[in-house]
Amino acid sequence: MDCRDRVRHWIIENGLIGRGDRITAAVSGGPDSMAMLSILHQLSAELGFSLSAAYLDHRIRKGTRREKRIVEIWCGRFGIPLVAGEADVPALARREKTGLEEAAREARYRFLDGFEKVALGHNSDDQVETVLHHIIRGTGLRGLAGMPVMRGRYIRPVLCCTGAELKAYCRAGGIAYAIDRSNSDTAFLRNRIRHRLLPAVRRDFNPAVDEALLRLAGNAREGLAALSDGIADLVPAGAADGSVTLDASLARGLSEHRLYLLIDTVLRDRLGVFRDIGRTHFNAVAGLIRAGRSGKRTTLPHGVRVTVEHGSVRFE
Amino acid sequence: MDCRDRVRHWIIENGLIGRGDRITAAVSGGPDSMAMLSILHQLSAELGFSLSAAYLDHRIRKGTRREKRIVEIWCGRFGIPLVAGEADVPALARREKTGLEEAAREARYRFLDGFEKVALGHNSDDQVETVLHHIIRGTGLRGLAGMPVMRGRYIRPVLCCTGAELKAYCRAGGIAYAIDRSNSDTAFLRNRIRHRLLPAVRRDFNPAVDEALLRLAGNAREGLAALSDGIADLVPAGAADGSVTLDASLARGLSEHRLYLLIDTVLRDRLGVFRDIGRTHFNAVAGLIRAGRSGKRTTLPHGVRVTVEHGSVRFE
Predict the structure, then answer these.
(1) Could you point out which of A64, A222, A309, B125 has its C-alpha 20 to 30 Å from the C-alpha of B312?
(2) CB-CB: which of B189, B206, B257 is closest to A137?
(3) Any idea what the CATH number is for the domain that residue A291 is in?
């Protein structure tokens, strides 16, 4: 099965795109996003969605002019409207005192957050690296599941193809792409996993380790889905001020594992807090809920406050 | 907390030993099992269990005379009855056409299967290596959970201590131990993980990767326990001939994930089939159950036959 058919199946199987959707492809000019752009362009009539593209100049390194040029040329050829943005990532990193990689990610999501439905060009190699990175750094089942195929307005239509397949697709179709040199900089942990650890494991331990990690991630996703069955129904719609209030006695009735999943659902899916939340924070919130004493509160990273009041638990 | 107190808590927390239990410690003469022997000896009066030891000479390599001598001396000092056995592992490997490691494992379990309740000396480093080995080789949540603290008559009381802690315990107590040279033979995949991969990951990626893997295994165990909730109740007692018969309509009513766990429970916990069962076999059995056509059957590895007859599914 070629890349395009695989992506077509993947989109349908996972319900990534519905008829009438307005999809914005996030493109960097690299092979993954250029292949994605071309494939989505070809599928748009059949699957009944409209396509535009969004490009952000990070201003981190040279060569972005060439990237942007490639994106402009191909959007022109495909007749796809392009929104180009700029972010001064080095200034952002200085201001927020984070690393360049982190700041670039932040800037990218800020830029993309304005669009209705965004297609990201992550491939299955990225998924393998993400899963292995999470395993090594320390994670639970959620991190083991890797990047989701779909979260909110973000979809990953080429997560079913390897980087080599997407490159080959570009070459076969005569589609130009730029090479991001920062991908080979082994100062980034992520790149060290890609360029040193994974090749060593493939050579000395298991040549099929990529497939093994992808299967494990799939198992974790299935397991999580089964464990989370009905959890989302316990979370009422958020208030106008963005806070979420749960029924404390309902939450107390859950097993420990499901209570954690409930807290996780509120934090991630409702309050958008993904990072820096560890087991101690879960324990603090779970303890608060189990104790159920009115007026008690705890503060989590990113300024999230959790308060117990009269049989309810309020996250804000 | 020192090793002995940790083991004490571990035994109580996991319900490994009950009052009146007759525990047999499987000892090799190495530091892990010698420390376990001494700790169990000290705890036996307080926790109310009796203790004996079992030693198997594998006849794989030289130096076993010294191992056996150490075991005999210390069992004598502690006043612990010792059962010593012998297995011609090289001959067994030739006869069954397996590797030496595999044959030794087989011989060990045959020898130990005769005892009422057996304590195995695996430590937390072994657990880390097992989990990483499973991840690299390819596994689902079950393999990710690592070695169980307790399975049937087997318990692992020192799984909460590192190898270094158990060695230090022996040294502090003046307890002799033998070093198993085969542990440093990197021809074994397991040893390559121990001696090459883990040190490289600790050095270049995360010095706390051991804890990260142990936490992940704990999460997988909790997740599996939550997913398996009530599954064991669906499996009736086995017949006198060792076969297990399920109600097909009850099995058909389960979600895919829980149906797999049900099949896994029958195969592992009832028929004792652990290895060589892959996703295709699960799919075959699940398909048989879903189709529910009388007289249909499939054959799994290790000669297990699964037959659908008149609304029931028979495993034999």
Answers:
(1) A222
(2) B206
(3) 3.30.465.60
d(CA A203, CA A181): 25
Residues of B contacting chain A (CB within 8 angstroms) = 135-141, 144, 189, 192-193, 196-197, 200-201, 204-206, 208-209, 211-213, 215-216, 219-220, 222-227, 229, 255, 257-258
How large is the greatest C-alpha to C-alpha distance in chain B, in angstroms? Answer: 66
- Assess whether pLDDT exceeds 80 at residue B45: yes
Residue B147 lies in a domain: no
Q: Would the CA dihedral through B97, B98, B100, B104 be positive or negative?
A: negative
- Dihedral pair phi/psi, residue B297, rounded to 5°: -150, 160
DSSP letters of B255-266? -HHHHHHHHHHI
Torsion-angle region of A89 (φ positive above 0: left; ψ -120 to 50: alpha; else: beta): alpha
pLDDT at B205 over 80: yes
Q: Is it the case that residue A273 has pLDDT exceeding 80?
A: no
Closest CA to A260 of A284, A276, A236, A239: A284
For residue B219, the distance in angstroms to the closest alpha carbon of chain A comes to: 6
Backbone dihedral region for residue B301 (phi beyond 0: left; psi -120 to 50: alpha; all else: beta): beta
- Judge: A227–B227 Cβ closer than 8 Å, yes or no: yes
Residue B54 — pLDDT band, cuts 50, 70, 90?
very high
ipTM of the complex: 0.82
**Count of domains for chain B:** 2
Which of B211, B215, B227 is nearest residue A223 as measured by Cβ atoms? B227
Query: Is B139 close to A227, i.e. CB distance below 8 A?
Result: no
Same domain, yes or no, for A131 and A55? no
User: Tokens 């320390």 sit at which residue?
Assistant: A138
Question: Quick check: is A151 in a domain?
Answer: no
- The residue behind tokens 């005569």 is A174
- For chain B, where are the alpha helices, taking DSSP H only? 3-13, 31-47, 64-78, 89-96, 100-112, 124-137, 141-144, 163-173, 189-192, 198-204, 209-227, 248-252, 256-265, 279-291
Q: B133: pLDDT confidence band, cut at 50, 70 and 90? A: very high
What residues make up the domain containing B299?
Answer: 232-315
Q: Distance (Å, rounded) from C-alpha A75 to C-alpha B232?
A: 57
Integer Cα distance of B210 and B195 in angstroms: 14
Is B276 a member of any domain? yes
- CATH number (domain holding residue B32): 3.40.50.620
pLDDT-derived band at A186 (thresholds 50, 70, 90) equals low
Q: What is the pLDDT of residues B232-282, one digit of tens each?
A: 888 887 777 878 888 888 888 888 778 888 888 888 878 877 667 777 888
Q: Which of B191, B195, B214, B222 to mutate to test the interface with A (most CBs of A within 10 A)?
A: B222
What is the share, in percent, of chain A residues with pLDDT greater than 70? 96
Let me know if residue A103 belongs to a domain: yes
| CB burial readout A18-33, b (16+ within 10 A) else e | eeebebbbbbbbbbbb
Contacts of A164 (CB under 8 A, 6+ apart): none
Same domain, A195 and A82: no
